Every structure is written in structure tokens, then in C-alpha cells.
Hints:
Elements: H1 8-45, E1 52-56, E2 64-69, E3 79-82, H2 84-92, E4 96-97, H3 103-106
Amino acid sequence: xxxxxxxxxxxxxxxxxxxxxxxxxxxxxxxxxxxxxxxxxxxxxxxxxxxxxxxxxxxxxxxxxxxxxxxxxxxxxxxxxxxxxxxxxxxxxxxxxxxxxxxxxxxxxxx
Length: 111
């Protein structure tokens, strides 16, 4: 039982279609491999998260509103990396500690 057409014109048409399809598949493979390489390069180049974050209010000159551990997902866009001494001073000055990541507990500061 042969599932290919018996005549040459249809076989040539099938060959052309298969060549075209194979080229598309190879292009798709190359695109996906390129994306994977770029993704891996981006992951390797990603900087380490900061140890501590301090979050500021809406205004440019506003005071800190909260402190966070560096990898806290609850930190807002107005957060800046800082050191542990600045976090300790902010907590002592009345700035709220994030209730999600608990930087005060992380630093050993108890109320």
C-alpha cells in the first residue's frame, strides 16, 4: 500500500511543499533556540537584589514610608536600595516595617 501519488507532477508538488514546510520548521527551531540563549544570558546578567529597600512616598522630597527586605515583592516602585544601618535608623525614627517581609525581625529589632 503506497500513500504517495503515482505521477511525477504531484510528487514534485509534494516535494516542494515538504521542502517549504521543512524550512519553516527549521526557522522556528532556530528562533526558539535564539530566544533560549537570550533568556539564559539575561538571567546570568541579572544583578543580585539588594539586601534592603527603603520605600518613599509620592513626592520627590517625601520621607520614607516603609522599609523592606531586598527581595520583598510588596515593595513599591519608589523603593531604593540601602544598607542595614539606614534601615535601623529609619525603623528607630518611626518608619513602618513591611508586615510581609518583616525587616525588623530580620535585623533582630523587636518592639
